[in-house]
Write a structure and sequence with these properties.
With 871 residues, the protein is α/β, with parallel strands linked by helices. Helices cover 48% and strands 7% of the residues. The longest helix is centred in the N-terminal third of the chain and has 54 residues. The protein has an 8-stranded mixed β-sheet, with helices on both faces.
Length: 871
């Protein structure tokens, strides 16, 4: 036995015939035991992490295919032998042949210290293998967890679906439900076979609805006439002059006067209707959209005519795009609330009927079209092509018709003219009454700014610049002050106009005693306003730029919305101060919403550093109101202006637009505070009440303005105020119907005043210069009042004011003024026209038009010169 113990360690042929899955028993030998070697995958068996995975009590080889030469061998571990991994091997129960060889090499290396050791490399390999094994185990565990979670979720979903399914089956098994199901099953057959409405029926609906909308729009353009008690008017005349009579006349003139204006409006609305049909490809949906939109348009148009004597124009939609639709709705007068409610009821009926017909009509598509399989067959191909072509063509025709309607010589304009269309766009209200609001609206979709004046060129504008530079130098020789040495405050007082100027209206108390006294001691006069009942932005535009609406094309109705947003660098008088003081040179205050008339956009273009409004980034601080009025009082607005002046470091230009006296005029004030007027017996009660409320607001403005000027006198800075009313309120219904009063409805009041710290304090220009004016002259008049040096541009305006005191786009039957012409006043207030002007007046007016065209529609040649600069 002792001899056997010295036998060689390896005995491969001992186990060569044994399959790899046969258990090998331990065989005791003196000094050691035999153990099976691990397979190749366990070559790192001596590592603790690996050996711990083996069983110490029962040892098996890996189950694998039988080989002729076994990969598993036994090893005899001598009790006296010393190997580096002997303890681990003892615990694991198996090692590989490769590991034995490795261990022998290690042992040999230990016996031969001069040979390099390989143990560190083996340890690195061992660590990497252990890390890979751990990672694989972790991923496997995570995979099992994910699969288990998926199974649990799927089981929960399946359980819920089963519960819902069971509940549904339980529900539909009720007898009542079964009866309902049977009913619909029986009804489905006939419902599926319901008729497709014919295209002839569509044509009838199209004609009737379009005609009804034309009549409805025209109906909103008229108001019932009133007659004096002493007037003897026969019943036939009353019927013809009534709203129904005027609408009937508008329609019947197709046969009575051979003027097919009804047809022109029908075509305009019809093209809109057709575009909706072909774009949506759903007749009833298009009918719903068309009926709702045009009815709403008609309601808004009627209210605007009532309040401002203006129809809806394309530029008005900038209010909606600017988010001011709710603010505009707040202007609806009380007496129109019932009209609006009735219109809403009509719209609801239109929507309900269209939806019902949409369900009943089995023809869903107006033109057959299959977007899912557009080219699956010849029918699908033709349908898809036709549907797309119809949509494009309808939109193109509508756009071409609208954009050319207001352009003379175009195809749509010539066709409409043959039907009796005669545009009078200088007065949009009159144009809408004569030609129809739909035609007026479409003709303004593309508004030309100005006709090119004769002789316009770069050389001509250079000659004009030199001409008025010489005039400016001549004027400046006698002037000693600079505009920029003073703060200029331009105040547009909402609807400020002396109510006692109109006939048949008297007051026991003067509504404006303080302002009347101020006007008597400083430069003041009457302003010719292009607006009545509205048009604030137009008068403001003229005051800030010096340009006149009378020079623009008739279709240029609201420059703030149609022109300024498209200009890159428009000129305004506040730039005189910004050129010297930079951004701190001008600011603006408007105690309402900044997007009204796009002021936030336009003021930035003009160069104002800030616009303080209710919703600006830095809002107005003072927002007190009077009584139940929804608008900020003038005293609050003046306080915001005073705060700006006290905080300013340099003189500046301040643009102020008030809101206190904006229409409508409801019962805002205490009854005992309301002024009482005396009117003729035939004045409607609504008009009388509105006049009293409006005049009461003027009384508050009068006192607030006096207090404001008194506080300015306490400031030791030169300040000049340009105060003016923009237009009369649209409440004088009786006067509107009297041609003799039409001119009075365009007269407001203005004054130019300087505080005690100003060199121009107590200055009053002679009435021959100041008695009549228009807002485009205010800055040149202020410079004259202040004895300040001026630019060539202001020199032109100064000279023009001397020769033509007021210019405006006003309708008047006095002085032989006809429709379509601008209104010009002479120094005595009488009306003149361009044909009867002197040579000097005609030349000044021609130069003025060239300058205006250059700034708005031309090449802006004057920008290259010093035409706008003040030395």
């Amino acid at each position: 036995m002792l001899k056997d113990a010295t036998m060689p360690i390896f005995s491969p042929d001992r186990h060569a015939h044994v399959p790899s899955y046969v258990k090998l028993t331990k065989q005791p030998i003196a000094g050691g035991t035999y153990r099976p070697l691990a397979n190749d995958e366990d070559s790192n068996a001596c590592a603790p992490s690996t050996l711990s995975g083996h069983h110490s009590s029962r040892l098996y080889t890996q189950k694998s295919a039988i080989h002729a030469i076994s990969d598993n061998t036994s090893i005899f571990i001598s009790g006296a032998g010393t190997l580096p991994c002997l303890p681990e091997m003892a615990s694991s129960g198996s090692v590989s042949k490769a590991e034995i060889d490795n261990n022998e090499q290690i042992a040999s290396s230990e016996l031969q210290p001069h040979q390099p050791a390989e143990q560190p490399l083996n340890q690195v390999v061992s660590v990497c293998k252990r890390a890979a094994h751990t990672t694989a185990k972790t991923l496997s565990t995570a995979g099992h967890t994910a699969v288990k979670a998926t199974k649990v979720t799927g089981h929960a979903i399946h359980t819920a679906a089963t519960a819902v399914k069971n509940a549904w089956h339980t529900f539909i098994n009720f007898k009542a439900v079964q009866l309902i199901i049977k009913f619909f099953r029986k009804a489905y057959g006939p419902w599926k076979k319901r008729m497709r409405f014919s295209y002839a029926f569509y044509a009838i609906v199209f004609t009737l609805l379009t005609s009804a909308e034309v009549v409805f729009l025209q109906w909103g353009m008229y108001s019932e006439p009133t007659y004096d008690k002493g007037d003897e008017v026969d019943q036939t005349t009353k019927i013809l002059n009534s709203v129904a009579g005027q609408v009937t006349k508008f329609v019947s003139q197709m046969w009575l006067e051979q003027k097919s204006l009804f047809l022109v409006n029908f075509v305009g609305l019809g093209l809109i209707y057709l575009a909706l049909i072909f774009v949506t490809n759903r007749f009833w949906i298009a009918t719903l959209l068309f009926g709702t939109a045009i009815t709403a348009f008609g309601v808004a148009n009627s209210i605007k005519i009532q309040l401002r004597n203006e129809p809806i124009i394309p530029a008005d939609f900038t209010f909606i795009s600017g988010g001011d639709a709710g603010n505009i709705a707040s202007f609806i007068p009380d007496n129109s609330q019932q009209f609006v409610e009735n219109a809403v009821t009509v719209v609801i009926w239109i929507i309900a009927i269209c939806l019902l017909l949409f369900l009943l009509d089995r023809r869903k598509c107006f033109i057959y079209c299959s977007w899912r399989k557009p080219f699956a067959s010849a029918k699908n191909t033709v349908g898809t092509f036709s549907r797309a072509l119809a949509a494009v063509v309808s939109v193109v025709i509508l756009a071409s018709y609208a954009t050319n309607l207001g352009t003379g010589g175009s195809w749509s304009n010539m066709w409409a003219a043959k039907q009796g269309y005669t545009p009078t766009l200088f007065d949009a209200a009159e144009d809408a009454r004569n030609n129809g609001p739909a035609t007026t609206f479409l003709s303004l979709t593309k508004a030309p700014t100005m006709d090119k004046p004769e002789g316009y060129s770069k050389q001509k504008m250079q000659a004009i610049s030199k001409k008025y530079s010489k005039l400016a130098n001549s004027i400046n020789k006698s002037r000693t002050q600079q505009l920029t040495d003073s703060t200029a405050i331009m105040i547009l007082s909402e609807t400020f106009a002396d109510p006692t100027r109109l006939p048949d209206i008297t007051f026991d108390e003067d509504p404006i005693p303080n302002i009347r006294n101020i006007m008597g001691t400083t430069t003041s006069g009457t302003m010719l306003s292009p607006g009545y009942g509205g048009g604030t932005a137009n008068i403001e535009y003229q005051a800030l730029t010096g340009l006149s609406l009378a020079n623009f094309s008739d279709s240029m109705i609201v420059p703030y919305q149609q022109l300024v947003p498209t200009q890159s660098n428009p000129y305004s008088f506040n730039q005189i101060w910004t050129q010297k003081y930079g951004e701190s040179g001008s600011e603006a205050v408007h105690p309402y919403y900044q997007s009204m008339y796009l002021r936030n956009t336009n003021y930035k273009k003009f160069g104002f550093s800030h616009l303080y409004s209710l919703d600006s980034a830095t809002p107005v601080e003072h927002t007190e109101k009077i009584g139940e009025s929804p608008y900020v009082s003038d005293s609050s607005t003046y306080q915001d202006v005073l705060d700006l002046i006290k905080n300013q470091k340099n003189p500046e230009f301040l643009q102020v637009v008030t809101m206190q006296n904006h229409m409508p005029y409801s019962n805002y004030y205490e009854a005992e505070d309301v002024l009482q007027s005396s009117v003729t017996d035939d004045t409607p009660d609504d008009e009388h009440s509105a006049i009293n409320v409006f005049s009461t607001g003027l009384k508050y403005t009068d006192q607030a303005t006096l207090d404001f000027l008194s506080q300015l006198n306490q400031i030791n800075k030169p300040i000049t105020v340009i105060f003016y009313g923009d237009h009369l309120p649209g409440i004088y219904l009786k006067e509107e119907q009297n041609p003799d009063d039409s001119f009075l409805l365009h007269e407001t009041d203005y004054f130019i005043w300087s505080n005690d710290a100003s060199p121009s304090a107590n200055v009053k220009l002679d009435d021959s210069e100041a008695a009549f004016s228009s807002s485009n002259y205010f800055m040149s008049s202020a410079a004259e009042h202040m004895n300040a040096k001026i630019s060539p541009y202001l020199a032109l305006l100064t000279k023009l004011h001397e020769e033509i005191p007021a210019i405006s786009r006003v309708i008047s039957n006095r002085g032989g003024i006809g429709l379509g012409t601008a209104t010009y006043l002479q120094s005595d207030g009488t009306v003149t026209d361009s044909t009867s002007m002197s040579k000097t007046q005609k030349q000044l007016l021609a130069d003025y038009k060239l300058v205006q065209y250059d700034q708005t529609s031309g090449k802006n040649y004057l920008k290259e010169s010093d035409f706008m600069s003040v030395d």
